[in-house]
Amino acid sequence: SQQGEEDPQALSIQEGENATMNCSYKTSINNLQWYRQNSGRGLVHLILIRSNEREKHSGRLRVTLDTSKKSSSLLITASRAADTASYFCATDKSGTALIFGKGTTLSVSS
Amino acid sequence: NAGVTQTPKFQVLKTGQSMTLQCAQDMNHNSMYWYRQDPGMGLRLIYYSASEGTTDKGEVPNGYNVSRLNKREFSLRLESAAPSQTSVYFCASSARRDTPLHFGNGTRLTVT
Hints:
Chain A is an all-beta fold. Chain A has strands spanning 5-7, 10-14, 19-24, 31-37, 43-50, 55-58, 61-66, 71-76, 85-92, 99-100, 104-109. In chain A, a hairpin with a 5-residue loop joins strand 4 and strand 5. The termini of chain A are far apart. In chain B, strands 2, 4, 5, 6, 9, 10 and 11 form a seven-stranded mixed beta sheet that branches. In chain B, strands 1-3-8-7 form a four-stranded antiparallel beta sheet, with no helix packed on it. Chain B has strands at residues 4-7, 10-13, 19-25, 31-38, 42-49, 56-57, 64-68, 74-78, 87-94, 102-103, 107-111. Chain B contains no helices and eleven strands. Chain B starts with a strand and ends with a strand. The A-B interface holds A 1-2, 30-31, 33, 35, 40-45, 48, 88, 90, 92, 96-103 and B 4, 31, 33, 35, 40-45, 48, 50, 56, 58-59, 90, 92, 97-106.
C-alpha cells in the first residue's frame, strides 16, 4: 500500500501563477521528500523536510509539513512553462525505503 | 558525471522469457533501489539494498530477484516474465537510506 497520496491528481495553471500540491500520509515518518519527473525521464529530488521541521524553502519552492495532520504541501511560486512535470511526494519511515505517492501532474501554459 | 546508469533503455520480452536489468552508480552511494512505475500507480518499490551485502523486499517483490553485485551495481532479474510486469523500471541510489535518491532514466519493458 502507498504511504503518500498527492492532491490534486492534475493541475493546470497559467505562467506566473502559483501552484500548490498537497500530500497526505498514514503513519509516522522520519522525513518527507518531493521529487519532479519530466516526461520520459527519471525523478529528480527537489527538497527534503525532516519530521521536526515545519517549513523549508528552495528558490521558488516552499514546502510545509504538518505532522499532526500527517500532511505536506509544495508551493511553486511564479510558475514557468518549464515547471510542467509530475510531482511526487515520498515518505521515509524507519525500516524501509522511500515510499512514493501517485503524483500530481502540473501543466503550466504560456 | 554519469550518476545512475540503467541498461537496456528498452526491452521487449515474450511471456516466460527471462532477463536481467542492470544498474550502476558512480557516486559511491551505499543504498540502491528498484522501483516500477505504471500509469496511475506512481512508483512502487520492488527491492532495495541498504548497504553492500544486504537486500530487502519492497511493496511488490513477487516475480523478481535482485543481486547487489558490489557497491556500484544492483541488478534486477525477471525469471519468467509475465504481461503484468510490463512497466517502466527505475533504479536509484542514495548515500544512506534516509538521504535523497538519485534516479536513472529508466528501462521500458514490454512483455507480450
